[in-house]
Amino acid sequence: MSIYLRKISFYFALAGIIGLVIVVRSLSQVAPMPAPPIAPVKKPASHAIAASGLVEAQNENTKIGVPVPGLVTEVRVKVWDHVKAGDVLMRLDDRDLQAQLLSQQALVDVATAGLKRLEDQLQRLQGVGTAGAVTQDDISTRQNDVAVARAQLASSRAVVNQTNLLLERLTIRAPIDGTILQVNTRVGEYAALTGKESPMVMGQIDLLQIRADVDEQLAPRITEGMNAVAWVKGDSAHPIDLDFVRIEPFIVPKVSLTGSSSERVDTRVLQVIFTMKPNSARKVYVGQQVDIYLTDPAAARP
Questions:
Q1: Which residues, other chains included, contact 160 with Cβ-Cβ below 8 Å and sequence gap of 6+?
Q2: Are the beta carbons of 168 and 174 closer than 8 angstroms?
């Protein structure tokens, strides 16, 4: 009986060992790397320089600010609206200045009445002449009083004009012709001078430009007039030809991150500006990231 039990125990132990080996082998197997959902961009030439880029409005995006902090009382535009330079975009609360303007205008009326009274007195004195009881000193004194009253009236009017100019500043107008890209404020919100985002962003998007970030270690290879091809993130099948515009002559820290796990956040980059010709068949949006390869035409020659 004991021999039978020992055999059963042996077989159970052997089965446990075999099962453990199978489990360990299954856990140690590496799953095959899945294919990327979108094929990555292939390097067009061995001497090409890779860069990441950001789509911008022509002449960069214009961030609309406010001259003074205040409560937003009116927003005249919405996203995709086309505006001309000088069109009203938004208004800030102007009740304080309007109240001041009422009292300032009243002072203008008082100064106007005072000047009229002194001018009438001077006119009567000049009509009497110096032959009677009126002397030349009296006339000179009235003339000086009239001059002072005129200066006081001019000062009051200047204060009114100053307030009107301050009121005009509370009406935010478009500085350029363009399209409204973002509206980050609503009626009733408080517009501050400094904040994480501007109340509005606008730009000219008839012709877009791309700001390419080239690692500073590759900056010596960048030359004027380089050719460039861009691919929108998520679309590696349709390249976009770019036209060289300029090289920004200042190395800056990289702020446009692509999200790649191998990307260094402390990279400094040389920025190169290209323009992208409009294409109705392909919709590209401001702020979209693109992959760019830059090539020097001279380097391709044998």
A1: 101, 104, 105, 108
A2: no
How do residues 85-122 score in pLDDT, each as one tens digit? Answer: 999 999 999 999 999 999 999 999 999 999 999 888 88
User: How far is 106 from 114, CA to CA, in rounded Å?
Assistant: 12
- Strand order across the 70-75 sheet: 171-173, 88-92, 70-75, 190-191
Kindly provide the residue ranges of all beta strands, DSSP E only, lying in the chain, ordered along the sequence: 49-64, 70-75, 82-83, 88-92, 171-173, 178-183, 190-191, 200-215, 227-232, 240-247, 252-253, 268-276, 289-295
One-letter amino acid for residue 293 of the chain:
Y
Label each residue of 47-90 as H, E or C.
CCEEEEEEEEEEEEEEEECCCCCEEEEEECCCCCCEECCCCEEE
Of 62, 96, 103, nearest to 169 (Cα)? 96
């294409």: which residue's tokens? Answer: 279
d(CA 277, CA 67): 35
pLDDT in tens, 178-232: 999 999 999 999 998 887 889 999 999 888 999 999 999 999 999 999 999 998 8
Return the amino acid letter for 268. Answer: R
Report whether 294 contacts 222 (CB < 8 A): yes
Domains of the chain, earliest start first: 49-92+175-295 (2.40.30.170), 95-169 (1.10.287)
Q: What is the DSSP letter of 144?
A: H
Cβ proximity of 91 and 173 under 8 Å: no
Residues contacting 224, CB < 8 A, separation 6+: 244, 247
Q: What is the pTM of this model?
A: 0.72
